[in-house]
Amino acid sequence: MSARFDNKIVLITGGAGVIAGFTAQAFADRGATVVLADRNPDKLAAAAARLRPGCGKIDWVTADVTDSSQVAAMVAEVVRRHGGLDVAFNSAGTFGRGAPVADLDEDTWSAVLNVNLTGVFLTMKHEIAYMRTQGSGVIVNMASNIGAHGRRPGLAAYAASKAAVSVLTQTAARDHIRDGIRINAVSPGASDTPMSYRPGETQADRDARVKVAVPAGRVSDPAEVAAAVLWLASDESSFVVGHDLVVDGGATA
């Protein structure tokens, strides 16, 4: 894509993650100032150190997306340091322990929904509160092809949380497009990250399984997911509102 993000301030939650890192690099390469956010300061600092500033800048701030006061402080700190907030990619998430519904413990259910759903609600709430004051902004939420688009046995909490993110995104998009804020979601399938492996799998095992299960015959490169996020965040998608863009090689087609 040809879009640039010069002088744009981009916030990425779940900033220590693989897809977040590829997305941050893509934004920075196109001129953005990128602020990574995560609750683990050591992993966050390491993730920021791996990135090249490119034409933009790299910064980071510690925050737990399940804590409203921390999220509010995160947004305020981004604005204080950099003078605004133009784009947010809310990618913080957790997979949780897999189990059939009858065997799923309540702590796992609560933990997964707190991060994946409540975390997206809180980050949007505070991002929108600022963006509304400037009359513009773009938000992209991380959903999943497991959820509204497809299901897998043993992943009830994850699927429920991500399906809810898809619907929350659509509702927020309609609530706030008249405020000048455009909101969409991206729903990746299996990507080349640690989450694509089942317990005990080698890369060869995973690739053989995916070759059969996914029509495209492979997992995605995280850069391919990043490209989808950047398109949704760019003016090239200016009339795309409340969309959930599936990037899964045809797995849920």
Write up what this structure looks like.
- The structure is a single chain.
- The chain has one domain: NAD(P)-binding Rossmann-like Domain (Rossmann fold), CATH 3.40.50.720.
- The mean pLDDT is 96.
- The radius of gyration is 17 Å and the shape is globular.
- The chain is an alpha/beta fold.
- A seven-stranded parallel beta sheet has the order 3-2-1-4-5-6-7, with helices on both faces.
- It is 43% helix and 15% strand.
- The protein has helices at 18-29, 41-50, 68-82, 106-134, 156-176, 203-213, 222-233; strands at 9-13, 33-38, 57-62, 87-90, 137-142, 181-188, 244-247.
Quick summary of this structure?
The chain is an alpha/beta fold and 253 residues long.
SSE inventory with pairings:
Elements lengths: L8 E5 L4 H12 L3 E6 L2 H10 L6 E6 L5 H15 L4 E4 L15 H29 L2 E6 L13 H21 L4 E8 L14 H11 L8 H12 L10 E4 L6
Helix pairs in contact: 1-7, 3-4, 4-5
> What's the CATH architecture name?
3-Layer(aba) Sandwich
Give the topology string: H per helix, E per strand. EHEHEHEHEHEHHE
- The low-pLDDT segments are none
Per CATH, the class reads Alpha Beta
CATH topology description = Rossmann fold
- Which percent band covers the strand fraction? 15-25%
Tally the beta strands.
7
User: Ends: how far apart?
Assistant: 24 Å
- The quaternary organization reads as single chain
